[in-house]
User: Fold Glutamine--fructose-6-phosphate aminotransferase [isomerizing] from Streptomyces longwoodensis.
Amino acid sequence: EKGGYDYFMLKEIAEQPKAVADTLLGRIDAAGSLSLDEVRISAAELREVDKVVIVACGTAFHAGMIAKYAIEHWTRIPCEVELASEFRYRDPILDSRSLVIAISQSGETMDTLMALRHAREQGSRVLAICNTNGSTIPRESDAVLYTHAGPEVAVASTKAFLTQLVACYLVALYLGQVRGTKWGDEIRAVIRDLSQIAGAVDRVLETMEPVRELARSLAGKDTVLFLGRHVGYPVALEGALKLKELAYMHAEGFAAGELKHGPIALIEEDLPVVVVVPSPRGRSVLHDKIVSNIQEIRARGARTIVIAEEGDEAVTPYADHLVRIPATPVLLQPLVATVPLQVFACELATARGNEVDQPRNLAKSVTVE
Ligand code: M6R
Assistant:
């Protein structure tokens, strides 16, 4: 049942190109526009939405953080993202014009379920992004967009995350299209780019041997830090979460712009720091800023593990280890940048003798608080 792999996690990492392609399948019509027939909220209702609120936990929360960048950019609708466990216990401001998006692989996470119940009580529309047909969260939502990742068995979420991202981009593009923002041309281009992304994920998977080797060489370390900016920031958080839950190491993700506000004090000789570098194309200011962040931490002794686009030579002099990913539009980069971090965490866990599919103290679906 593991299809020849030692662990479900390895199998599920390898299945990502297919999971991504399957999640896109049938959702973009021949004319290149989006039709999401599983979304049973009318276009008229969507045009009325004045706020999007995303609620989720763990890895699904990181997908939501990335979705915020896409939703606000393509639709100009304000978007908040909140941990479901925080959202449900405060007094969030919601009404019938708020669209709440609940993201959950299992569809059974208690905090996310309670958050969506609370939202519906306030009269908000709820859209679920979920991987499990007929589970509680989609059953209680007004609309559902299923991710077609197939069953995810390993506790650490991998293919579900990539498909959650695809689903979030689809929702963002759909909202943009329905509301007719000025980004029409960009939206059409992104639809084209999305259809190529499964191939890009495949290419990343083919080049992972050096990442595995690097992971094995770091098995004796205590701490690994992760830095990113813009959509690379949630990717850094996701890389750190994977490493915590699988390798039981101290791992933290930071927004690179925060370095001088505290985290840079952690940098010491030979500390591994993974840096997710945004595309040098698009918003190049982000790229320039992170190149100086890499220089700053390296000057203080960090061992830099740099994840950068093919052809990005500006980072080469400052990278102790360079992991190349295919060029993608800025907002789509998490779909390829996350994959090396999954492989890294899985290999480090194996090297430390940990149980990869069933990490200690964790359950696949958290149905209690
Ligand atoms: O089933 P859900 O997507 O609602 O689960 C949310 C989190 O419990 C989950 O993503 C968790 O953080 C994973 N173990 C991370 O790999």
Q: What stands out?
A: The two ends are 31 Å apart (CA to CA).
